[in-house]
Design brief:
Elements: E1 23-28, E2 64-69, E3 72-76, E4 81-86, E5 92-96, E6 130-134, E7 138-143, H1 150-157, E8 175-181, E9 186-192, H2 207-214, E10 217-225, H3 233-247, E11 256-261, H4 268-280, E12 286-288, H5 297-311
Parallel strand pairs: 1-2, 7-9, 7-10, 10-11, 11-12
Antiparallel strand pairs: 1-5, 3-4, 3-6, 8-9
Length: about 325
Amino acid sequence: MRREKYVEHGGPDGGDGGRGGHVIFRADAQLGSLLDLRGRALWKAGDGTHGGARNKTGADGEDLVVRVPVGTLVRDNVEDITLCELLTDGEERIVVEGGKSGLGNMHFKTATNRAPRETTPGGAGVLRRVGLELKLVADVGLLGFPNAGKSTLISVISAARPKIADYPFTTLVPNLGVVAADDIGGSFVVADIPGLIEGAAEGRGLGLQFLRHVERTRMLLHLVALDEEEPKPVRRWQILRDELRRYDTDLLDRPEVIVLTKSDAVDPKLVTATRKAFAKVGVTEVHVISAATRQGVATLIQSVWTQLRALAASPPAGV
């Protein structure tokens, strides 16, 4: 109540309280994984403060901003629904709203009730259990069996520096690289998807963890190594195509480029025979490269850029 020396009938004077802080998820292109969020079970925004005398409204609680990588999908684990997807750098979504502010006694003053004692409490805080899933957003996805040369290629055409070794499953996390060159007049993002094997759609190898990243690519570069004897190159390509179909049939409609890698390590006759084998199954565009010697790499980049420009009018896959 307002009580001042020369104010005979001060009346109600209590202001409203402040709302609770929101929990906001913000996409950050500088982040590449969700590892920074591990080890913290509870994320809490600030509380609103009480209203004050002279009809002063209390301060709102401080919002909590949680930074996540671009491509993060946020789900409510209790209701099993998707809350939002953050697909562009700087995009924000309120995942948990702060509690509503309570009303001060100023709101309850009437002609017959000039000294109301009523107030309303602020809204209770909301607890939401969420799950986060990262799907990389890239223009081009590199697919292939382990040791097909994906990491070597992305290290050659971009500034990405993935681990490279001569044993299977060297790449354990997806790598992103930006391909930028004056001769193509632009740039595009490439995702190195860890090696897939037969049965990946059922969880064999590392496939099930990373097949989801393929959903957010505009086109696919399917790398097939020439220095491996069994199974044959065409059969290896067919095996992974079948894994894509079993995971999501829509992926088979994604533009695809076949790239024969490690051409410097095999007889040119094998290259010619492999081209003919792909032609027999209806694949006419086959690029032959050697990332080690840079043979055919520039031509491949130009072809990919041309196709991406043709796809520019369509929205990103998976959005």
